[in-house]
Amino acid sequence: MHQGSCLCGAVSFSVRGALSPPTACHCSMCRKHHGHFEAGTDVPRDQVEIKGGETVRWYQSSERVRRGFCSVCGSSLFFDIEGVDRIGLSMGAFDTPTDSRLAMHIFVADKGDYYEIADGLPQHDGVPVAPAQES
From the UniProt record, which GO molecular function terms apply (predicted)? Predict the structure, then answer.
């Protein structure tokens, strides 16, 4: 069980099961929403329980994506893609050890000019597409 919360504690969440390896997103929207690049993990919706959901506010940042944050303290918590049975959780919101390691960086062409990515992990200009499965 993994647990997390916003800065003020008005919103908390728990996740049953393992977390997928987190991804660091350097796109301009994530940077503006988080104040720096965003690191997040995607988990099946049915494995997440959110308490204080009435305090969560959603910002529709694009046609298919909305971002959830605490309306009291402003903590960035969720990344929700319409029609996908997974929800993104901000790694910085976890209260407990996650036993995970960053897997890759995406949208690196949009990264801020004030930092370098030097951890040796894969870097992509967008979201990598999984190769087609052979029949």
Answer: carbon-sulfur lyase activity; metal ion binding
Place of tokens 């960053």: 102
Q: What is the CA radius of gyration of the chain?
A: 15
pLDDT tens-digit series, residues 31-77: 999 999 999 999 999 999 999 989 999 999 999 999 999 999 999 99
State the Cα–Cα distance between residues 104 and 123, nearest whole angstrom.
6
* 124-to-30, 31, 74, 96, 104 alpha-carbon distances in Å: 15, 16, 29, 29, 8
Q: Which residue has the tokens 């529709």?
A: 60
Domains delineated in the chain: 2-110 (2.170.150.70)
